[in-house]
């Protein structure tokens, strides 16, 4: 019993853990990882969901990428769906930024979203990245010169430098140029990028004398461009130079790149001079010393040491490189590869060594994860094997066996594609029952539960996505049999009284009576009803018509015909039915119509006449001018006398036809040239028979059209009219054929090849020729005009003999090459070991470094890359790959961590306005040359009143122990100028914080020299003007054109104010910029004793930017005197006269 209780407790515990898992319905992101590429972030996302996932959204900074998930990326499992996708999203990483944060969210097909998943992708180290940075002084720099969001305007000067650096529009960059020469054609490949967007990339071609030959421009390129220029056609073979430069949308340009090439054979490399032979210098032998007694030395103990293939992955048993001493011990096969022992010597320890067999896994074929209607029999495995398939709930599964013992089998599957089945109601639908039906509810589909208590409804749900049918059954009621009503015969269909019981149907009139039915109610019987119809007699179609003999048909339309009486005419009656009326009927006397019809070229008379039965008619024919009677016939065996014609006895309507004919002329046609005559060219008149050249055809007088027969490869003459007169001579017709040409067009899809000419005219029956040019690393498939070749290169290709227009199509694509990497040391790696790369594209490789290590990266010529030094983990690129020979090698060495030392100073601590300051910058690396003691990057930044937060990179990849530079700044505004320098070295070490200094720029002083006439001072005392705190907007924009002054006039109690005039002078040198402003007066007025009045005055400012001195005079217009000004000091100047101040226009 205790065991049972324990078992129940375990079951409840498992259920408690399982219920929360079953309750969760939202999809879940099970794994995600990010890798930073060049200005792009690659994020790999994996999930588990109860329903298939349809969308994946990744957000990084201001960029959002929403990706639709392919249905095959959802793998069905016993608990739902698993899957993964890779999303690439553009990003803009700032200098000194260490990583890119991103957010991932997925959505299933029911619209349910997962929780937000946050991650960070590390950025590859740059010259100013990485390492701990101590915050010193005012905290400027944060260990680097840019990065992070902008600070508030009131923050530290160097924080604002960082903010400006973030907003600074960096000039675009462009990689080295790679010429690709094919004959006398050349294309230039490169790569360019910009943080805001490339406007255009410009390539220029120069000959050996420096003359510009051609310029090509690529535009609309986005932020990153990688590709080739248009084709430059070279005039002759020889030496050339090409330049390339990138321009961004803000007008910034990259450094101009340049490359030279020669279309001839490359010059041989200079021969290597052999080293001179070593000649030993004779040295005299030393005097012989007596030899010491011989003492035998003990043997040296040597431990065994494994060779180069130790711990390597190989495809077969090793035979060389087993031991360091080059010995070759016997190898033993193991479960994972091979093992052997390198023996020690003289008592040394032996070394146990091993190598692993490269695992070759089984690989699924093209049918893997496909949706198929039937069980797959092909495309199961990549090696074309056909393993047994197992039927599963979702389709089929099979296993592709591993290739060798260290490999792994591949589990493969395919999804069964099922056909949708629509739901269809069963026989119970529409029927009546005394209780809810339980059988025959659905003909197709699955029946739902019935609802209602009579009537009843239910649904038939379709299968595999099929539609749903809505079904219904009625409740049964008591049956009532139908019963016919009691009616009398009628001429028309009855309307009322049709049924004594039941529901009447529509009444049917079958000519002899009426029929209908009375349907029972609630399943009662149906009664069939009839009623006789009263029908009046009505004469038939024979009544009123002529007959020779008594008619036998169409006597009565309604009723029964009586016996016929009389003879031409004949009489009878039509007797009514069921008491209907009788109608009397009669024929008329028989007469016949004789019509005369004339053909073209004359008339006949009479054209129409009526004759009694068996009489004859006479007709006269009159031909038109130039015509004659050709024939007269019709209406029995008639007789002709000249142009008169008498018919035979007329016993039925008939027609006499008269034909006229013209006097005949002759037409002859000559066809040229004889070549087309030999090929079967012919002519005809109108719709006549085809005739040969020089044949003649007799025709009547009139106008005819000559037509010509089509002949292959020849264009026939246009139809020509000819006039035939009788009598008279008709001129001969000459028809000339022209040889036909056909058009051959060319079309190209894809990149990497051209096809010329675009169009050409080819004579019929002959062939055309097209020229294909394929770039290096590309192939083309040709088709059309009888050409069908795949995987071809440059050359000329001939069409079939043409009999119609046609097009030659070239489909071009780049080749794929293999790039390998090598090099490893104490945990330092370069990966991947091998990768496929599309022709013309770079290869990415990743460097993983241990602490205090660097990597020297180099590549073979096929890698199109320069050697570089790497001091931080990250992903790097080769140049454009155009062959299979690219091999990238990494050599790892240990480095030191001493950062550079920098100084920055100006030649003075203060400067006058307009004076030039000289700044000297020196940077030295404290490491030794063996420890990579070389300066890499140097950054200079300054903040001045006339230019906020400016920065300049003084050096990039300097690769020297020291660096020096000077910069000059002109003091164009007063204030403090702050300077800073930051540097790092080739080993990746960076200064902990920038080095700073500053100097002062003195204000500009311009004395008023503009003289104008003002009255003397007023005699009254106690009047003062001007307070420096009352001035508004002393710094204004030249674009606005106005400045407002605010000042105070005080009255000492001894003066009565009246009207005033304000006189403004803005002085720059000897030029008055704004003279007497009399139109502004009076600006205010006041009377009485003490007090003060505040005034505002708008003045025009100079259009040129700069610092100006403004002078203000206030004149009493009533007494014509100038208000007194107390002695004061402004900007270090003693003011006893008019008040003045500096006005800054910017």
In short, what is this structure?
With 1146 residues, this protein is mostly beta strands.
Keywords:
Immunoglobulin-like; 1146 residues; 3 helices; 6-stranded mixed β-sheet; 3% helix; mainly beta; single chain; 7-stranded antiparallel β-sheet
What do these coordinates show?
This protein is mostly beta strands and 1146 residues long. The chain folds into 12 domains: 103 residues, Immunoglobulin-like (Sandwich); 81 residues, Immunoglobulin-like, CATH 2.60.40; 45 residues, no CATH class; 46 residues, no CATH class; 48 residues, no CATH class; 50 residues, no CATH class; 72 residues; 76 residues; and more. Helices cover 3% and strands 46% of the residues. The chain has 3 helices and 92 strands. Strands 9, 10, 11, 12, 13, 14 and 15 form a 7-stranded antiparallel β-sheet that branches. It is elongated and about 155 Å long.
Task: Annotate the secondary structure layout.
Elements: H1 2-23, E1 28-37, E2 40-49, E3 53-60, E4 63-68, E5 74-77, E6 80-90, E7 99-108, E8 117-122, H2 157-167, E9 173-174, E10 178-182, E11 185-207, E12 212-228, E13 232-233, E14 239-248, E15 257-262, E16 313-314, E17 332-333, E18 337-342, E19 351-357, E20 371-372, E21 390-391, E22 395-400, E23 410-416, E24 424-425, E25 432-433, E26 442-444, E27 446-447, E28 456-461, E29 469-475, E30 483-484, E31 499-501, E32 503-504, E33 508-509, E34 513-519, E35 527-532, E36 538-539, E37 556-558, E38 560-561, E39 571-575, E40 583-586, E41 591-598, E42 602-605, E43 608-612, E44 618-623, E45 627-633, E46 639-641, E47 644-646, E48 654-662, E49 664-672, H3 674-678, E50 683-685, E51 696-700, E52 702-708, E53 714-715, E54 720-724, E55 733-736, E56 738-739, E57 741-749, E58 753-756, E59 759-763, E60 769-774, E61 778-784, E62 787-792, E63 795-798, E64 806-814, E65 816-822, E66 824-825, E67 828-831, E68 834-838, E69 844-848, E70 853-859, E71 868-870, E72 874-877, E73 887-894, E74 900-906, E75 910-911, E76 916-925, E77 935-944, ...
Parallel strand pairs: 16-19, 20-23, 25-29, 41-48, 49-55, 57-64, 65-73, 75-81, 83-92
Antiparallel strand pairs: 1-2, 2-6, 3-4, 3-7, 5-6, 7-8, 9-11, 10-11, 11-12, 11-13, 11-14, 14-15, 17-18, 18-19, 21-22, 22-23, 24-26, 27-28, 28-29, 30-31, 32-34, 33-34, 34-35, 36-37, 38-39, 39-40, 41-43, 42-44, 44-47, 45-48, 46-47, 49-51, 50-52, 52-54, 53-56, 57-59, 58-60, 60-63, 61-62, 61-64, ...
């Amino acid at each position: 019993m205790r065991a049972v209780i324990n078992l129940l407790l375990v079951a409840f515990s498992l259920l408690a853990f399982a219920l929360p898992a079953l309750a969760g319905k939202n999809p879940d992101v099970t794994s995600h990882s990010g890798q930073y590429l060049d200005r792009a972030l690659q994020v790999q996302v994996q999930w588990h969901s109860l329903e298939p996932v349809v969308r994946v959204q990744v957000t990084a900074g201001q960029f959002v990428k929403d990706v639709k998930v392919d249905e095959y990326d959802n793998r069905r499992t016993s608990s739902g769906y698993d899957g993964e996708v890779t999303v690439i999203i553009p990003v803009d990483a700032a200098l000194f930024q260490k990583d890119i944060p991103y957010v991932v969210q997925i959505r299933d097909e029911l619209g349910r979203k997962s929780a937000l998943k946050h991650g960070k992708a590390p950025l590859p180290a740059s010259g100013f990245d990485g390492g701990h940075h101590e915050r010193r002084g005012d905290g400027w720099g944060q260990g680097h010169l840019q990065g992070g969001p902008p600070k508030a305007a009131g923050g530290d000067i160097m924080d604002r430098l960082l903010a400006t650096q973030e907003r600074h529009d960096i000039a675009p960059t462009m990689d080295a140029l790679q010429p690709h020469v094919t004959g006398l054609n050349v294309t230039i490949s490169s790569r360019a990028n910009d943080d805001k967007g490339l406007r255009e990339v410009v390539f220029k071609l120069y000959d050996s004398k420096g003359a510009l030959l051609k310029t090509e421009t690529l535009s609309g390129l986005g932020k990153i461009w990688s590709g080739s220029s248009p084709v430059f056609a070279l005039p002759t073979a020889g030496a050339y130079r090409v330049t390339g430069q990138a321009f961004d949308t803000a007008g910034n340009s990259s450094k101009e790149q340049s490359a030279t090439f020669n279309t001839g054979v490359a010059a041989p490399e200079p021969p290597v001079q052999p080293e001179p032979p070593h000649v030993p210098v004779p040295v005299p032998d030393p005097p012989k010393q007596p030899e010491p007694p011989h003492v035998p030395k003990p043997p040296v103990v040597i431990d065994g040491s494994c060779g180069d293939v130790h711990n390597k992955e190989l495809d077969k048993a090793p035979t060389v490189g087993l031991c360091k001493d080059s010995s070759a011990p016997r190898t033993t096969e193991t479960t994972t590869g091979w093992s052997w022992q390198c023996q020690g010597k003289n008592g040394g320890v032996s070394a146990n060594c091993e190598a692993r067999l490269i695992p070759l896994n089984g690989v699924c074929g093209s049918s893997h994860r496909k949706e198929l209607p039937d069980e797959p029999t092909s495309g199961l495995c990549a090696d074309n094997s056909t393993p047994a398939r197992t039927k599963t709930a979702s389709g089929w599964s099979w296993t592709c066996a591993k290739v060798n013992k260290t490999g792994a089998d591949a589990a493969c599957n395919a999804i069964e594609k099922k056909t949708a089945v629509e739901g269809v109601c069963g026989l119970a639908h529409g029927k009546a029952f005394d209780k809810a039906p339980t059988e025959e509810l659905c003909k197709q589909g699955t029946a739902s539960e019935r609802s209602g208590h009579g009537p009843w409804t239910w649904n038939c749900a379709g299968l595999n996505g099929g539609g749903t049918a809505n079904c219904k059954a009625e409740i049964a009621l008591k049956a009532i049999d139908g019963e016919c009503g009691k009616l009398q015969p009628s001429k028309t269909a009855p309307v009322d009284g049709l049924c004594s019981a039941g529901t009447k149907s529509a009444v049917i009139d079958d000519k002899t009576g009426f029929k209908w039915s009375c349907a029972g109610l609630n399943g009662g019987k149906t009664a069939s009803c009839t009623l006789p119809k009263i029908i009046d007699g009505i004469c038939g179609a024979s009544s009123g018509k002529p007959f020779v003999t008594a008619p036998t048909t169409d006597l009565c339309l309604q009723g029964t015909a009586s016996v016929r009486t009389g003879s031409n005419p004949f009489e009878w009656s039509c007797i009514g039915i069921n008491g209907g009326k009788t109608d009397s009927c009669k024929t008329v006397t028989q007469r016949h119509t004789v019509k005369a019809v004339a053909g073209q070229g004359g008339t006949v008379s009479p054209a129409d006449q009526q004759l009694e039965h068996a009489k004859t008619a006479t007709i006269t024919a009159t031909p038109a001018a130039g015509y004659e009677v050709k024939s007269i016939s019709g209406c029995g065996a008639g007789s002709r006398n000249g142009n008169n014609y008498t018919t035979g006895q007329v016993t039925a309507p008939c027609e006499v036809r008269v034909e006229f004919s013209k006097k005949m002329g002759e037409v002859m046609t000559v066809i040229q040239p004889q070549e087309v005559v030999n090929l079967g060219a012919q002519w005809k008149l109108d719709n006549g028979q085809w005739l040969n050249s020089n044949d003649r055809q007799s025709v009547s007088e009139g106008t005819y059209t000559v037509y010509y027969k089509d002949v292959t490869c020849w264009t026939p003459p246009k139809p020509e009219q000819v006039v035939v007169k009788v009598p008279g001579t008709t001129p001969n017709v000459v028809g000339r054929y022209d040889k036909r040409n056909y058009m051959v067009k060319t079309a190209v899809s894809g990149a990497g090849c051209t096809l010329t000419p675009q169009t050409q005219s080819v004579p019929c029956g002959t062939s055309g020729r097209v020229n294909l040019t394929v770039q290096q690393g590309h192939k083309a498939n040709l088709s059309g005009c009888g050409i069908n070749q795949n995987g071809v290169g440059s050359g000329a290709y001939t069409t079939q003999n043409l009999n119609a227009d046609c097009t030659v199509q070239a489909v071009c694509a780049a080749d794929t090459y293999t790039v390998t990497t090598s090099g490893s040391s104490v945990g330092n790696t370069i990966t991947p070991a091998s990768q496929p790369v599309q022709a013309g594209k770079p290869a990415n490789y990743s460097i993983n470094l241990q602490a205090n290590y660097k990597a020297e990266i180099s590549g073979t010529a096929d890698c199109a890359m320069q050697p570089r030094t790497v001091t931080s983990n990250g992903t790097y690129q080769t140049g454009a790959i155009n062959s299979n020979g690219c091999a990238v090698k990494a050599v790892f060495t240990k480095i030191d961590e001493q950062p550079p030392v920098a100084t920055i100073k100006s030649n003075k601590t203060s400067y006058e306005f307009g004076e030039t300051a000289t700044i000297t910058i020196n940077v030295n690396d404290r490491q030794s040359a063996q420890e990579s003691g070389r300066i890499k990057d140097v950054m200079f930044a300054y903040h001045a009143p006339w230019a906020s937060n400016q920065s300049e990179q003084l050096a990039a990849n300097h690769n020297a122990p020291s660096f020096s530079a000077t910069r000059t700044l002109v003091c164009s505004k007063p204030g403090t100028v702050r300077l800073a320098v930051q540097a790092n070295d080739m080993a990746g070490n960076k200064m902990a914080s920038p080095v700073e200094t500053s100097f002062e720029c003195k204000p500009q002083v311009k004395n008023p020299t503009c003289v104008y006439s003002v009255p003397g001072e007023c005699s009254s005392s106690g009047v003062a003007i001007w307070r420096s705190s009352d001035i508004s907007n002393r710094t204004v924009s030249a674009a606005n054109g106005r400045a407002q002054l605010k000042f105070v006039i005080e009255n000492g109690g001894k003066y009565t104010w009246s009207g005033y005039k304000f006189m403004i002078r803005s002085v720059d040198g000897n030029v008055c910029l704004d003279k007497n402003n009399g139109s502004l007066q009076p600006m205010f007025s006041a009377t009485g004793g003490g007090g003060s009045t505040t005034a505002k005055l708008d003045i025009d400012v100079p259009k040129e930017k700069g610092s100006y001195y403004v002078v203000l005079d206030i004149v009493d217009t009533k007494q014509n005197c100038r208000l007194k000004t107390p002695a004061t000091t402004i900007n270090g100047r003693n003011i006893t006269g008019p008040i003045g101040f500096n006005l800054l226009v910017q």
